[in-house]
Design goal:
Elements lengths: L5 E6 L4 H4 L6 E2 L12 E4 L5 E5 L2 E6 L2 E4 L1 H5 L5 E6 L5 E5 L3 E6 L2 E5 L10 E7 L2 E6 L2 E6 L5 E4 L11 E7 L2 E6 L3 E6 L2 E6 L4 E7 L4 E6 L3 E5 L5 E4 L4 E7 L2 E6 L8 E5 L4 E3 L11 E7 L4 E6 L4 E2 L1
Antiparallel strand pairs: 1-28, 2-29, 3-4, 4-5, 5-6, 7-8, 8-9, 9-10, 11-12, 12-13, 13-14, 15-16, 16-17, 17-18, 19-20, 20-21, 21-22, 23-24, 24-25, 25-26, 27-28
Length: 307
Amino acid sequence: MKNWMIVLVVFLTTTFFYSQSIITKKFTTDDGLMANDVRTLFLDSNGLLWIGSRAGLATMQHGKILPNQDALEYRFTNIATIKEDNYNRIWIGSYGQGILIRDKAGVKTLTKDNGLISNRVRILFSYKDFVYVGTDDGISIINSKTLQIKNIKPAYLKNELFTIVAFFVDNNEVYASSLNHGIYKIKNDSVSLENDVKRIISTHYDIEKKQLLVGLINKFIVVDKVTSKINHFEIPGIRDYVRVKDKIYFVKTDLLGGNGAVYCWDGKEVENVTQKLGISDNELYTITYDKQNNFLYLGTKLEGVIK
């Protein structure tokens, strides 16, 4: 099956929120993209947009797209997640090849051979001096300075996959969301079950509003930690989130045969803003935001690149 890729960059001016005017531009792999599917996007502290796809890694700055030479040299593909740690090193996670770490001093890889719990990395999360690695079968916690690795998997799941899909922080404590076994609090070298909700594919904690957004395979829920109120929405397949000013934007992926979409959560209500953003391609997969330049970036599986 043909791979698809789109990076959609929507320029959000102050007037956009009132007039909904949009400036867009279309790109293709002819402009330097590695492949026509985007699995993850990450904007680093230098304003460089990292674009991960099944075919590898590329970067974009000032509209110019270049393949990442380190990823090419290491033949690092199936990019699933990208993060920057407190030392400004870029961590690239592959679903199958472990982790590629890149900084000014050079490049290093981490795999099961180096102590990683699994090479099938799904999500990376940086907090304080640690990088949390969510894989298909457990959690690796890596000291950002020393690269020392600690692995975590509940003993009672020894014969089952412990698939981690997201991390978040609440009250200075790190939590991990798993696909089939609930949400866990991470403490030292172990985890404790906090909620046994099943079929999670994403979570996002809004620190300002103290609300936990949870994307399930078949619906979307918001848990207000102040009021204990839980809102349920019949929106399946919520995949990725980003804060834009005082709202949370998130994308719905076509998991169950329905159309993808972009939604906005203002703390009280959900609004489908797909048409307002002028998006006709709806195989959406990932989202990020450039606060300094007021750009919203969306990655999808459809052919083409729209700015």
